[in-house]
């Protein structure tokens, strides 16, 4: 950070029809050239129904069904994610959860059905494990995308 960089702590109230859309609107505002980096510490209300279901039923969520396109061993932060993950959880899923909760900037490598490879810097917004869908915010394009886990080749913490 240059000597002219300044760090601010703020609270922002966003209004929209859903928490996900409010978060998307906030991320659009924060991804300006003047903002060097940011960290959303609280207020992300995605995945609450899944958490509540797991608590009330006392059961583990459905295991991730890995496909050949999904790597069994993620490259970055494997030790940190595995130690915090439940023993039944796939390490790939544990990394997705960790990156989503921490707001870590990641590089996502995706192989689309027609053989097109995409590599994008993004933040993970929502992970729908039962449907095997990952919603991400592309920080360069300032757009939200949803991918099936079978399309994802790699998720790596952005350096």
Automatic annotation (TrEMBL):
<protein>
    <submittedName>
        <fullName>Uncharacterized protein</fullName>
    </submittedName>
</protein>
């Amino acid at each position: 950070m240059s000597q002219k960089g300044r760090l601010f702590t703020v609270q922002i109230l966003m209004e929209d029809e859903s928490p996900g859309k409010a978060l998307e609107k906030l991320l659009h505002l924060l991804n300006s050239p003047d903002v060097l980096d940011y960290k959303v510490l609280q207020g992300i209300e995605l995945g609450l129904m899944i958490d509540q279901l797991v608590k009330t039923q006392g059961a583990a969520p459905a295991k991730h069904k890995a496909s050949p396109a999904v790597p069994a061993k993620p490259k970055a932060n494997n030790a940190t994610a595995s130690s915090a993950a439940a023993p039944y959880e796939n390490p790939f899923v544990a990394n997705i959860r960790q990156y989503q909760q921490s707001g870590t900037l990641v590089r996502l490598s995706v192989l689309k059905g027609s053989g097109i490879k995409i590599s994008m810097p993004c933040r993970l917004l929502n992970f729908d494990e039962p449907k095997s869908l990952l919603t991400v915010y592309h920080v360069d394009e300032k757009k939200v995308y949803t991918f099936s886990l079978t399309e994802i080749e790699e998720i790596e913490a952005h350096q």
